[in-house]
Amino acid sequence: MTDKHALIQPDRGQQAIAIHVVDKATFPGWLSSLTTAQKAAVAAQKFVGGGYERAIVPDGDGWFAVAGVANAANLSSWCLAKLAETLPAGIYRRVDGQPGKALHGWVTAQYRFDRYRKAPDEAPEGARILLTTDAKAIAPALAEAAAVAKVRDLVNTPAEDMGPEAIEAEVRALAKGHSGGRAGAEVTVTAGDALLKGYPMIHAVGRAAARSHAPRLVEMTWGDPKAPRIAIVGKGVCFDSGGLDIKPSAGMLLMKKDMGGAAHALALAGLVIGAGLKVRLHLLIPAVENAVSGNAFRPGDVLASRAGPTVEVTNTDAEGRLVLADALAKAAEDKPELILDFATLTGAARVALGPDLPGLMARRDETAAGLVEAGLAHDDPVWRLPLHEGYREYLKSDIAEVVNSHSNGFAGASVAGLFLDRFVPEGVDWAHFDTFAWRPVAKPGRPKGGEALGLRAAWHYLRQRYGEDRP
User: Fold this and answer.
1) What is the C-alpha separation between 296 and 438, in angstroms, rounded?
2) What's the confidence (pLDDT) of residue 179?
3) Whole-model pTM?
């Protein structure tokens, strides 16, 4: 994020500009309390209390702001985000209440990806700071916003600057501040031809890339070895040309975001470590570039896998599930209590659910329900898709044990989930997020570009299951 200020601060009675919050139901009563001149100012701005509306109202020698929201009694994460995007720099305080969940959107609205910009964009200069008397809410809100910004930064960065080695550097940077002792963070990297012994599918997908973008499996462990073990896995395809089944140019345009699963996994690991969650964390990111060259893997090739099943390659553009399969198999070897994986896996999930909703697949109903509920409670909705047993036949191969991509076009997201399921041992509590990691159209607090979708749902589920929120 460009703005490094603390955008949420404790309310100690300091001078601040007032923010009134109304909805359509409370607007008439609020309006009646204003002076004639103030009513005229509100009317001139066509403010009627609708969601994301805002107005600036004169007040003596100064002014105050009013925000229209859907429900003034139950603020969402995004209801004050429009103010944070458009108000002048300054310090603000909500009148007659606290910001609640709106703290999150207040910070994320001020995100800017400016790595490649020399001139400022059209956003107002300086920070908009929001006060709250709920001091305990500040650190968690800032941590979540920082995690979202991390996902956005990583996904927005082009592949030349966010290749496998850059992802490794991000993991090492996370571990650096938490190393030392049995519970400290440790990083292990298996790269290049070393992948042939143990991770053949990660090697096959990434071997065509330039040496500077050599494939690797990046692992980090953290936490008390005696604590419940969880694994977080993220698809790190730093650029996806489609391989020899090459994508058209329009299909490649956003493929810098194909490492969005890795970005989510890394950000979630950061939240786990930052909060000191009582778990033994295992982060795994298979980082590759699916490139085209003379040694690229081919349609019709049969690949060995870490877990054992042989895989016939029917589509080199279905590469993400191949690298995830080896990483999931490795994750399962330590017998974790829970595995979560994130991946920009299928266009089928986007056709079914659109860009906003990650497809969630889970073996256990209670895990799926917990993730769905956590998402709804924190304005990060996910939608469960089935792992339907009847579709396993779509993965049958004539010459190997499984194909990596079925040919009939039905239930693409679920069939991809079933492929992954084949490489996770029975009995393991496993959930898979098929996320878009991109926002094609800006919304308040959520700019166009890389986006965290499913991150907060997963984080609050983990907090409830393993942290202070645990029942």
Assistant:
1) 28
2) 82
3) 0.96
